[in-house]
Amino acid sequence: MKLKASLLAAVKIWVVIYPSITLFLFLFGEELSVLPLYQRTFILTISLVPWMMFVGVPFVDFLLHRLSAKNSFSKSLKK
């Protein structure tokens, strides 16, 4: 059971971070390309970690709970 919860957490984080990094680099990649790698990494992480922890993952949790509630409601109606 612990493995399933860890796997679900990893997938939720990936679902948030992959599109976030892609969009961030699409919007700011050219401007950041003149900076050294350690500065680009710092700017990327200082921006996206709070976004992921306080907005992105909670939003995915909200969507999953809504989807789960809809499925539970639909199953109860079919009985």
Features:
elongated, 92% helix, 79 residues, mainly alpha
Distance between the termini: 28 Å
Low-confidence stretches at least 5 residues in length (pLDDT < 50)? none
| Count of all domains | 1
DSSP strand content: under 5%
Estimate percent helicity.
over 70%
Tally of helical runs: 2
What radius of gyration results from the CA coordinates?
Answer: 18 Å
By secondary-structure content and strand pairing, the structural class works out as: mainly alpha
Overall spatial form: elongated
Q: Mean of the pLDDT scores?
A: 91
Number of strands: 0
Largest sheet: none
- SSE order, as H and E? HH
Question: How does the SSE layout of this entry go?
Answer:
Layout: H1 2-32, H2 37-78
Helix pairs in contact: 1-2
Describe this structure as you would to a colleague:
This protein has 79 residues and is mostly helical. It has one domain. The chain contains two helices and no strands. Helix 1 packs across helix 2. The chain is elongated, with a radius of gyration of 18 Å. The model has no long low-confidence stretch (mean pLDDT 91).
Concise description?
By secondary structure, this protein is mainly α. It has 2 helices and no strands.
